[in-house]
Design a protein that fits this description.
The complex is a heterodimer of chains A (403) and B (539). Chain A is 17% helix and 31% strand. By secondary structure, chain A is of the alpha+beta class. Among the domains of chain A are: 13-68 and 156-248, Probable tRNA modification gtpase trme, domain 1 (Gyrase A, domain 2, 2-Layer Sandwich), CATH 3.30.1360.120; 305-385, Aminomethyltransferase beta-barrel domains (Elongation Factor Tu (Ef-tu), domain 3, Beta Barrel). The radius of gyration of chain A is 21 Å and the shape is globular. By secondary structure, chain B is of the alpha/beta class. Chain B has helices spanning 14-25, 66-71, 103-113, 115-136, 151-166, 169-178, 183-188, 194-201, 217-225, 244-256, 299-305, 314-322, 349-352, 362-373, 421-438, 454-461, 513-525, and strands at 4-10, 30-34, 81-83, 87-90, 96-99, 228-229, 232-233, 237-239, 260-263, 267-273, 276-282, 287-295, 329-336, 355-358, 382-386, 401-408, 446-452, 497-499. In chain B, the strands form four sheets. In chain B, strands 1, 2, 9, 10, 11, 12 and 18 form a seven-stranded mixed sheet that branches. A seven-stranded mixed sheet of chain B has the order 5-4-14-15-16-13-17, with helices on both faces. In chain B, strands 3-8 form a two-stranded antiparallel sheet. The chains are: A alpha+beta (403), B alpha/beta (539). Chains A and B meet through helix 2 of A and helix 2 and strand 3 of B.
Amino acid sequence: MAFNRPDSNRRDHFTDAVFPSPFHARQNAHNQMRVWSRWSDYLSVPAYWCAEMEYFAGRNTCGVFDLTPMVKHRISGPDALPYMQRLMTRDVSKIKPGRVGYSVWCDDNGQVIDDGTIFHLEEGVYRICSQEHQIDWFLTNRLGFDVTVTEETHDVASLALQGPTSCAVLKDMGLGGIEQLTPFGMAWFDFEGTRLMVSRNGYTGDLGYELWIDPEHAEALWDRLFDAGEVRGIRAMGSDALDMLRIEAGFILAGQDFLPAMEAVRAGHTRSPFELGLAWLVHFDKGVFNGRAALLEEKEKGSRYRLVKLDIDGNKPARDSFVFTKDEKYAGTVTSAMWSPSAKASIALASLEMPHGEPGEELLVEIYYRRELKWNRVMAPARVVKDVFWDPPRRRQTPPADF
Amino acid sequence: MSRKYDAIVIGAGHNGLTNAAYLAKAGLKVLMVEKNEWIGGATVSLPMYKDWKYSNCSYVCSLLRPEVYRSLNLAKYGLQVVPYGGSVTISQTGDIIGNYVDPDVTRREVARHSPRDADAEVRYGRDIMRQCRFIRKFLLRTAPDPTSFKPRDLFEMLHLYKETMKLGEDVIYDTMRFYTMSISDFLDEYFESPLLKAAHAGSGIIGSALGVMSPGTAYVLLHHAMGDVDGNAGAWGFARGGMGAIAGAMHDCFTDHGGETVAGSPVHRIVVKNGRVTGVALENGDEYLADVVVSNMTFPRTFLECMDEKDLDAAFLKKVRNFKIRGSSGKLNIALDGLPDFPALRGNPELMHADMHLIDSIERLERAYDDWKNGIWSQDPYIDMLIPSLTDPTMTPPGKHFMSVFVQYVPPKVNGQDWTDEQVQAFGQTVINQIDEYAPGFKDLILHAEIRTPRELEDEVGLTEGNIFQGELTMDQLLFNRPIPGYHQYRGPVRGLWMCGSSTHPGGGVMSAPGANAAREILADLRKPNTVPEGWLDD
């Protein structure tokens, strides 16, 4: 099916403020609430029917989320690896062909520009998925390297299939051997005359896959998935549910848990990888990369902030809350918060000023909540916790069980 | 293995496990003894057909105190409670009244039957929520002794008084009426649609040997409405993997804190020497010593079957005998070869996931109760059934299903005589025929059916007369009257003997409040640090 593409070469592009995704017809059929939100150039669905039910599909059966609006770039050429090494803080040489890796990239000051997923599609060819548009920065980084950088956001349709029955659904769909795919692995399948790429990763902290296909086959992919998944509780999942899933998994979101460095007006409003709890993504021993000197200095002198996970007493979500020490001195702010239906706890990600945020530290979270139009305030005791709130063993098992 | 413990808990149902877990968490050396080879009591998933998972007794979860869930870290021990969407009542004419996840869809559904009732639902929901907010404060809290002048009891009475006064004059009057009304009279004050009234009335009789027209059933409805799933008041969910997953997580928590379990032999005697408890003797001859013995068995079973009557006062024994604990419910657990086809629900997959009721009217519910009074199972029973395998992928292979069918009314004895195997089968057939009328071809899908009458509930689980709440939930047996006045603070009549089952405040359901409250009292008596949450902060 031909569909309207967000095409900046079109002079009259403004006549469409937002575009349907290649899955739009199917999303529309599932979208009982008829509410649409937008994600960059595309229409997106906040909740098809009930965000909570969709959340539970992700934890109990499986949910399908349209990832197409995710910004995608392709890096290729003889210098692709050294280029990636300069761009990324992590050692990209460890991400072998056919493997996926999470990474961040920084400016010269060691401040995070964005985070994203690197797909090593074949020797010397990478796809980078990110929340923010990056073409200027990626092209800037080309200086000195023989690489081609192209944006392919609109050329690839993709779905996330996340949840405990996701592997079984793909098996039933006829993707032979999918159960042998290890976490952060990729596999290719013939699909109705085209190539379907499946990667085992996601944004939910659970067993899950991402499916990548050309837009012309998008609807067929959706249909085959739902046919196979019907008896395994498959459900279309909106962005509200996905946000719940990612907070439980402790995954950060650009523009929510950190401010992309390219957008920051005010000093001190950006964050380094260390300040986001991502020290494991910084590899100083791999040679030069953007921000290396600044990060080395930070490592020596100490960071300004720490992103932590909070376990908060009571059941009131601590959205946009201030965090205080036990003697009510300012310690930081909550960046993401929710009632966790799986951990059965009020949880939050919070950015605290150093030295706060050691695991086990007792804090207070100032929560405002409304009951029958009346606002109330509670200073809820909270603890800094080390482990993520949801981390089932099936996330790492190969082959995964059917549920 | 050492035979001397700080505490012995009898009965590995969810309240016993809750109690034992809190005691172990406080550092006590705790032994759990269980008569069956398996743990869980009525919170259990026993394999009956292949390796399919059943919820053999209790089948849905809402009352489980969130404070217990969290403080025992049950999520860490693998428990997942997954809400299911709504409910539906199907009439014999094929009409339905659905309660959907979306409130506006539900309003229009009710308006289809009565536009007035759709509005009245708002008022009804408000009034029920007022009662829920009131009662929730007293669930994880020991009931005060109204006759005591101990500072603690005076304080608790004052607390009760203050909370009551907070309701405001009108609501206090409503509350006093509410606790003594029949569900039928209560619903008449709001609604006109017979089907809607029947849809609401079911919650007023589930587990109760009372009819919809019997005083006191309005409270039983509240008992089913006061829970929540993730803060959604009145919502119910499935424990992923069946209800046994709840007991399993609790038992893992207990074991993790050093608790030990002996399963497979019933208690022969709770041993008493010189007016105080010294331990338990099992039927297999093993004896274990402890100064604290906690019974999660029913009130009558504890004192009439597991103690020497000579160790107890006559007047006390008489009150035990008079405790109202009448069986009224049965259950079928059915393995199905495919999804049943309910013509009334065609094209409505959401309601297939929901709690399905087969009933038309208040009158039909009352007729079902008449049979119980006459000593037979309802020939036209009230059925509350669910297909959890539509929500929970762990229960059956894809496309196959497990169906949980709860039935009112089923008497503890048939015409005064013990149930025979033939009668049990006949009861099962009555229920299957009933469902088949609403879902033609249903019978042909049945691969296996476990039929449970009060006889099975008593013989297997130990629930006296098969009463699922360990005692009727009426005002004469609630709060400081539960199980009987003077013994409502979990202490038994013999020193060192405690009660922690649903026979105690605040009663039945997979709530864990009795077990938790009893643990708090025991730890206070032993002057140990409290490990048990108290009260209700999450307004």
